[in-house]
Design goal:
Layout: H1 14-25, H2 32-38, E1 42-47, E2 56-60, H3 65-74, E3 77-81, H4 86-98, E4 103-107, E5 124-131, E6 135-140, E7 143-148, H5 149-157, E8 168-172, H6 180-196, H7 204-215, H8 226-238, H9 247-260, H10 267-293, H11 296-328
Antiparallel strand pairs: 1-2, 3-8, 4-5, 4-8, 5-6, 6-7
Helix pairs in contact: 2-9, 6-11, 7-11, 8-10, 9-10, 10-11
């Protein structure tokens, strides 16, 4: 069973791509940067968990929250199903596809047969638009792929960091979409307010500062091998972030908004993110090189750039907050 007239939506980040496919199928197509922006996606987290095995540097809001924010902002119906039962999990997906509704899945990419990386990451998303007796047909990032139904079931049922019990979701359009200018203003205002007021020290600009202090000691950290340092650096720029730890995507979101609604005053913040984005790439490259060469000096250089980034992002988000207050009151 393959959904008729299904047109894939391709993207760079897994969750926005999955949501983009579901929205597009019910008649609403927005750019991936726009989805990320109205989903209040920009953030930062430094997560050093024993379960992960290596420090994780994330550049976006919490798992699943991005989807929930997008659905709420666009006034579409989001239905989420979680269950500990593999049979019930599959029946939910199958019944929706049989009715012509694609389904978003959250799963562990380790089990998917088209992935070559031997790493568990249970915060991955795909859109499923068909199945047969052996395979499920998916949109993942910038490609239409297939994986065995067994592998998809195992990936969905995996229990580990970032996992959810067989989480699946669908989106249904409602009668009326809200005014996009208002949607953008409210999303940017809330995202910037949250960024400027992080609840704990490893989140947002405070988390960036914490990372700047932490990475200097990575080569001395017990269990932190050069390969793990390289992996941490690679995930920042290549791990489905759209480059520069989602800053490329947020930069492009601000640029699109500035073109559509120049009176919102986003241009200066866009210029700042155009400066910030390549700085994140430089940090990623320095971390990777430091791991390859066991070079502590490169970690110090990356640390200083992170401190500069933290200050610049605060400036940019203050601009966005100030420029959107008048639109949300």
């Amino acid at each position: 069973m393959i959904i008729k007239n299904f047109t894939p939506f391709y993207g760079k980040h897994c969750e926005t791509t999955a949501v983009g496919n579901l929205l597009q199928h019910c008649g609403l197509t927005l750019s991936e940067p726009m989805l990320f922006g109205i989903g209040e996606g920009l953030s930062f987290i430094y997560w050093d968990s024993k379960q992960m095995g290596f420090p994780f540097l994330g550049g976006r809001c919490k798992q699943d929250v991005l989807t929930e924010n997008i659905a709420q902002r666009l006034n579409v119906k989001l239905e989420v199903k979680e269950t500990a039962s593999k049979a019930k999990a599959w029946e939910y997906v199958k019944s929706n596809i049989d009715r012509g509704i694609p389904v978003g899945l959250k799963l562990d990419m380790y089990f998917l047969e088209y992935f070559r990386d031997n790493i568990h990451f249970a915060g991955h998303y795909v859109a499923m638009y068909g199945y047969d007796e052996e395979f499920g047909y998916l949109v993942d990032g910038n490609a239409q792929v297939k994986s065995s139904l067994w592998s998809i079931a195992e990936a969905r049922n995996y229990k580990g960091p970032m996992s959810s019990p067989n989480r699946a979701f669908t989106i249904t359009a409602t009668d009326k979409l809200p005014d996009m200018k208002s949607v953008i203003a409210c999303a940017v205002n809330k995202n910037s307010e949250q960024y400027l007021n992080p609840p704990i020290q490893n989140i947002s600009f405070k988390g960036i500062k914490k990372t700047a202090n932490a990475i200097i000691k990575w080569l001395e950290k017990p269990g932190m091998t050069p390969q793990l340092i390289i992996q941490a650096g690679q995930l920042m720029d290549e791990g489905g972030t759209g480059g520069s730890l989602f800053r490329n995507m947020y930069r492009d979101f601000l640029k699109e908004c500035d073109v559509l609604y120049p009176d919102m005053g986003f241009h200066e913040a866009y210029v700042k993110f155009a400066e910030i984005a390549p700085m994140w790439r430089e940090v990623s490259q320095l971390i990777c090189s430091a791991g390859e060469k066991s070079n502590a000096q490169q970690l110090k250089e990356a640390s200083q750039i992170l401190l500069d980034i933290s200050s610049l992002e605060v400036e940019a988000m203050k601009l966005l907050f100030d420029n959107t207050v008048c639109f949300v009151k």
